[in-house]
Amino acid sequence: MSLRRNTAYEHQTRINEALYRIHADLSSSLEIARLARSACYSPYHFQRIFKQITGESVHDYIRRCRLEWAANLLIYNPNRVIVEIAEECGFHSSASFNHAFKSFFNCSPTLWRQGGYENRSRRLKAAWSESALNPHRRYYRDTLDGGRHSVPQQVEIKRLPTQPVAYIRHVGYDLRIREVWARLLDWGGAHGIDVEAQQMIALHHSNPDLIPFDQCRYVACLTLPEKIYPGDGVGVMELPGGLHACCQAEGVFGDLLYLMRDLYMHWLPASDYQARSIPPHALYRENHFINQSGRFNLEFRIPVAGRVIGTHGY
């Protein structure tokens, strides 16, 4: 391995520690000094390396993640009080949340719930569906006007344990994910892990109805039989346990977007549950990114909690 690649993997491994802390609790203060310590950098070098790897400053990355997830929760949890969602996503005053949300989405949180989400999504999908480079054009055309959905009938609520995993982050819901899985499995084999005996799990951080496919964030994970230390650009973390709404699915590349949308936009708001501030994940029985058939068989799992009845206001 070249020195340059080795250095790049070392930076990625260390920044992974900070990214894990950010996504584990968006409501916390997420101070740069603490994040830098978790990555074993000085604050100055941490901010420089973080931007080099993510393409964003630490402040901008955290702000975007908080606002994107708040935008989702406003829709997924229609009975939650807005200020509670704001606090869950790291905004500790109504005024600061309202200002940040308007600046980012050109719409207040209240208007977002009253049609702002649909209007923005429709405009974005109209543009994305015309791009010849977009592998999900069919999905955007099918759902442009809110059509083509069927609420899944078989959703099972399970309480899952925490799960240690090794992982690699990827930006883009695209076929380059194949390369990520190949690299992760090669890493596991090189570290003496019987990868055939482990489970493959994919985290889906982004809502493809709001985020361009090439900016959506995907995390390929491999369960671990014992404690393994991170390295070579591969991180190690624990997937949170707790209640999950689980649904079985089969299909080919692109089909999972339909299920994600149906569960979050239709099943969840009508259910007795609400989404938690944790990304959903897919547990693969057959992984279409690495098998010959190109088909997946998986269980899609949404972290949920019992619904809290509130109002649509602040």
User: Which class best fits the helix and strand makeup?
Assistant: alpha+beta
- Average pLDDT confidence is 91
The string of secondary-structure elements, in order, is: HHHHHHHHEEHEEEEHEEE
Assess the beta-strand content as a share of residues. 15-25%
Report on this model:
This protein is an alpha+beta fold and 314 residues long. The chain has two domains: 3-132, Arc Repressor Mutant, subunit A, CATH 1.10.10; 156-306, Alpha-Beta Barrel (Multidrug-efflux Transporter 1 Regulator Bmrr, Chain A), CATH 3.20.80. The chain has ten helices and nine strands. The chain has helices spanning 3-24, 32-38, 43-54, 58-76, 82-88, 94-105, 109-128, 137-142, 177-190, 255-270, and strands spanning 156-160, 163-171, 200-204, 217-223, 235-239, 242-252, 273-275, 281-286, 295-306. Strands 1, 2, 3, 4, 5, 6, 7, 8 and 9 form a nine-stranded antiparallel β-sheet that branches. Strand 8 (281-286) and strand 9 (295-306) form a beta hairpin. It is globular.
Keywords:
2 domains, Arc Repressor Mutant, subunit A, 43% helix, nine-stranded antiparallel β-sheet, 314 residues, disordered C terminus, 10 helices, single chain, Multidrug-efflux Transporter 1 Regulator Bmrr, Chain A, alpha+beta
